[in-house]
Specification:
By secondary structure, the chain is mainly α. It has one domain. Helices cover about 70% and strands about 0% of the residues. The chain contains 6 helices and no strands. Helix 1 crosses helix 2.
């Protein structure tokens, strides 16, 4: 068990580094992750397989659903910002898991956003 935990913490540290997040963020993420076995197992599955099991859900939403919502927002930022914004897949992955963990405490807040906030795929958005 200790070896798996070390592997997970190392992966979190690398993700945070690649994503431009601080060691404080990494520690807070670790604390939240270890408190939620279902999402922890999903994170480990991703670490070991490079893919999602989509078993961990909050009110029917998986980490992939969160990532799709985030990508929508990423596209909207690109449409407004031509100053060199680049996609950071590690950041999107990390923040998708972090958002899913936060959804446990307040799912309505996030579900409302996912259902009402969209990207720029329709005319006259901005």
């Amino acid at each position: 068990m200790q070896e798996k935990e070390t592997k997970v913490r190392d992966f979190i540290s690398k993700l945070c580094s690649y994503a431009g997040e601080s060691s404080e963020f990494a520690q807070e993420f670790w604390e939240k992750l270890k408190e939620d076995k279902e999402i922890y197992d999903e994170f480990v599955y991703y670490l070991e397989n490079g893919n999602f099991a989509c078993r961990a859900k909050v009110e029917g939403y998986s980490v992939v659903d969160v990532m799709i919502w985030q990508m929508d927002h990423f596209k909207a930022r690109l449409d407004r910002d031509n100053s060199g914004t680049r996609q950071n897949g590690d950041r999107m992955l990390l923040l998708a898991f972090d958002t899913l963990l936060s959804m446990r405490n307040n799912p309505g807040k996030y579900i409302d956003k996912m259902q009402s906030e969209t990207g720029t795929d329709y005319p006259d958005k901005f």
